[in-house]
Amino acid sequence: MSTAVSTPPVDQFVYRYFDTQDTYGFGVQIKLAQFFIEKRTPKGCYYIDHHDGRKRKYVCWNWSKKHAHKTIEEAQLAFMKRKRNQCLIVERQLTQAKNAYQKGIIQFGLDEDPKFKILNDNCSERTVYGDPLSLAELEALKIKEAVEEPYDEIPY
Q: How far apart are alpha carbons 155 and 55 in whole angstroms?
């Protein structure tokens, strides 16, 4: 008489958190992606990533960087690590760009253009690329565009 060992039910999904901008581009939403496990291996699994054109992907549980995770808690932790690293990288890039801009002004002997302001640390200033048009200038442009004849054929 043999005793069969029953294994606990195995979760059929892997998880990944990702961020997106809302429809209007003013806020951020954090969403959870749930991927169905297609095949299990001794060291990981294959799953279908429907966010990436239904590509079949493999994840090994021993990898330090994984695209998807066994539990929601692991996916949350990985999301926070990815976003922290992204912030550090972008901050370094912004600092380098600001320093290069300031060095360019000095090296090329230019005056800082008042129409182009570098964002300060609290982002209270806006970047301006030119003088805003007055209402009269806007109306003149609208009238000019309305009077111009349309093209006979589409220019390429």
A: 39
